[in-house]
Amino acid sequence: MTIIRLPKSWEIPESQVTSETAYFNRRRLLKTLVGATLGASIMPILGCEQSSEANSALAASLDTASLKPVETNPAFAQVDRLMTDQSLAGRYNNFYEFGGNKSIWPKAQKLPTEDWKVEVTGLVNNPRTYDIDDLKKEFPIEERIYRFRCVEAWSMVLPWIGFPMKSLIAAVEPTAQAKFVRFTSFYDSEITPGPGLHIGSLPWPYTEGLRIEEMANELAFFALGIYGHILPKQHGAPIRAVLPWKYGFKGAKSIVKIEFLATQPATYWNTIDSHEYDFEGNVNPNKPHPRWSQATEKFISKGPGLSWEKRPTLPYNGYGEYVASLYVG
Ligand code: MTE
To answer: What share of the chain is helix, strand, coil (3-state, %, to 5)?
Structure first.
């Protein structure tokens, strides 16, 4: 059994974890699309150190309830690089419902996670609405340490706690007509204002999708926790999708609905720009994003010292042995 215990180190300068061209490019895309003025709000994240008050608030946001100790799946107990420190992962997030920069963690604390329900519906024999306790009781909860790769060319290693998506498939029994699944994230314009006051035409709620065969793959995972605790809100509490061979945008956060469908659903980023964010979203060093290379990535970790290390991108993020057969032909 592995319980991840990482040192808490809240005092890392923001400037060391928040500089990347791809991030600004993505904001530029949103700006171009909706004609909004976003420039001013990105300035505060550059070069500013966290105050001790902010450090305490960050610590409080990450200090969520412990999950009872779970076994680490031995197939996913280690990877070829260091674990990312939770104080970095927990304040370097993409959660556009709460804003368009990486520093949304304070705003995300507004997410109302009490009495959360996840509706599983569509082309299934056993439709059902689960609460989070049902999920913890009825599905095999385990820990998995996965590489995580964002389309913006940064990466981390994260210890998720949750259950394989294939166990939900077994419980709800999709019918023969079901070929795709759609995940819908929480959305309430009062609580999740989006990246800017002027943006009204983004395709909310955030949705993502998979082919059924992808969802049934051994790697596809629903996370309820991270670093031994229930998910902090900035990571997509109380339940999110984790698909380590795909770019991070495929992993919808704060899921409220899971629908089994006959046809490929429209998804958030693919609707915004299908050339930049294809439906498949597989990590591929040989397929550049239209505006930047995917050949290398910046790996964010903290071992003996802070690391922001350039590494070659791995095909399928290093998980080809599990998933390459899904894409033959
Ligand atoms: N899910 C929702 N609902 N909203 C988002 O903006 N961003 C995606 C994904 N899931 C996003 C989302 C992107 S682009 C990434 S890289 C990951 O969440 C980031 O997850 P993290 O903040 O926990 O590292």
So the answer is: 30, 25, 50
